[in-house]
């Protein structure tokens, strides 16, 4: 089967543009209201054609069922603190049945990947109106902290650079560093909570 | 009534961002498929607070019914040729009941405004998901040719600069120039059609 | 000679991005100061590889001298009124020897092209710092009114669509419509001047 | 002295736009050449008027010497790995005397701030052409890893939220977490180096 890739990718590109605008708006809305935003920044991308083909071969997905691939359209939402992830996930759940449909969720924060990878994934179905008509596509929304993103960015870049041939002992070190990044995340959340507590104390005292 | 303007304008700002992305995508989709795009470019803006207040006073709209104002969110779609307007309008009609609802249409191309103004307006109702919940707002989509836009841009800028105090004889000249711009538009469309005809002839002849 | 096109086009792409930001900033600066901007909007593009090759063949430019082509990087500045063109040109001349160097100017408003085309072109030399070092490239800045742009956009699109095979009688009609567009431009400028005069009169009278 | 803030901030806003485009281009240039980019992403901002006033009071800078403030225009460049910082710094040094001038450098990676803050700062002088003429302004370029940025973002947000009144014991915990983030950075760099070594071994063996 010969795929007209340009045509095929059109609705995915549009979906990514629309979803990026939608989640970026939420951030600027919090800022305009002078409130803390659970979203720190948002990125998005359409999977490169070569990566789609490579994945379809690896997973034995025939090209005429390629639309079942869940991450052709990908949105990444970065949060400052671990607690923010929950807030963002619940913002997305609130939209379920409105401008998007949640297909399923994958909690790689509770169920850490073998590699050490942590993130919360939500697979959504999203409807776009294109020049060639309406189309419903799948998109993967990844929600993660800045620390999880720091680790995942480097791990991805190492894997890519070294063609997924990372020796076992180094894999172990990467995994340990993922653990360290997560401990850092937890420490930052705790610090925030303690500051809130001590602030409360401080304000009580100063109002005597 | 005291309005929290920042909060009030949030969903309008988001709607404009989303609608701009949606119509710009259509243009890039035509281009990617190597086809002529009926959309040449797209702009959008949220009406300034001062203009909203001024209009509400002029039209006697109380501030608690200000959401009935149709052009707080405004999208402008520019076309090369008059015929393209129809195609764009029908693309928007195709979306009715999908990602937007058409409230009504105002055809200022058939029914030219007293000033000479021409454009096709579609008032839509559009649903946005904001940080403070779901909201359905009104937006005005103006569809016009580059020539109509040329005229309207200058007329608007003159009116603004001279505080709507344009003398009668000059109003008449502006109106005549709107007419001239429209004749130019028609001439360009005709030239296109003749080229298509002569091309047809040329291709028939050369294939003998 | 085999050209590494990606590498070759890099500095042009960067120059277009930088110049677009620079001229767009000027517009937003006038707006922020509450003043009329002689710049209405700005676009830019790098010539497609296929068009560069096609032009180099047509003009007999060997590929190792392709850097002499003046319009690989192109910036287009649109003005509302004919008088604004002069202001924009003088803004660019003021930068000569600063962030750009003027190589030469081509006045297609005084010396209209055979086709009817009008615009003011400035060829500049612009220095960019890229990942692969410093590079000085040529760029063409076109300054035109909205009406000139309306005509040029349609003429270009017709020429492209019909493979430059526009019959003589239709060429004549296109030329006439360019003339009509220019008369419209002049009429708009005159209307503006008359409004300024009559405003002056009005203000004198009302201050008695 | 009354400052016309809009006018005052214009060249800073333009400088930030230009510098963002320039450093983002470098990233996309590496990507287009299929090479690893030492720049992961770039952000920029002009300091809010209120923060400028607050800082000028805190530091006793009179408003007529406010241009000496070095961080009114701020650019932030994020790198994946600690080693990349050096590469980015040397890319900036290569431009010294070309499109920017280096005023001085502050190495908060060698000389960590009391709070635990790490980043490499370069103060540059940058010349912009605005609608109101040429102007040379100061800008601060911060170069840091994703991990340093993770820590600094949260520390800044905590300081802001709690009005700089963070108790001593919590300050100590924040400092420790900065240390942990830096160890993580070092571990990631080492992992990369080991992978390169083991890859080298692997390739030698497979080429026997």
Question: SSE layout and pairings?
Answer:
The structure is a homotetramer of 208-residue chains.
Chain A: H1 5-32, E1 41-46, H2 49-58, E2 73-79, H3 82-94, E3 101-107, E4 120-130, E5 133-145, H4 146-161, H5 168-206
Parallel strand pairs in A: 2-5
Antiparallel strand pairs in A: 1-2, 3-4, 4-5
The radius of gyration computed from the alpha-carbon positions of chain A, rounded to a whole number of angstroms, is 20 Å
Mean pLDDT score of chain A, rounded?
A: 90
- How far from one another are the termini of chain A? 78 Å
Q: How much beta of chain A, percentage-wise? A: 15-25%
Structural class of chain A: alpha+beta
Largest protein interface, residues of each chain: A-D, 38 and 37 residues
Oligomeric state of this protein: homotetramer
Please provide the count of β strands of chain A.
5
Question: In sequence order, what are the helices and strands of chain A, one letter per element?
Answer: HEHEHEEEHH
| Name of the CATH architecture of one domain in chain A | 2-Layer Sandwich
Helix content percent band of chain A: 40-55%
CATH topology of one domain in chain A: Beta Polymerase, domain 2
How can the largest sheet of chain A be summarized? 5 strands, mixed
Number of helices of chain A: 5
CATH class of one domain in chain A: Alpha Beta
Uncertain segments of chain A: 202-208
Strand order of the largest sheet of chain A: 1-2-5-4-3
Write the CATH homologous superfamily of one domain in chain A. Beta Polymerase, domain 2
Global geometry of chain A:
flat
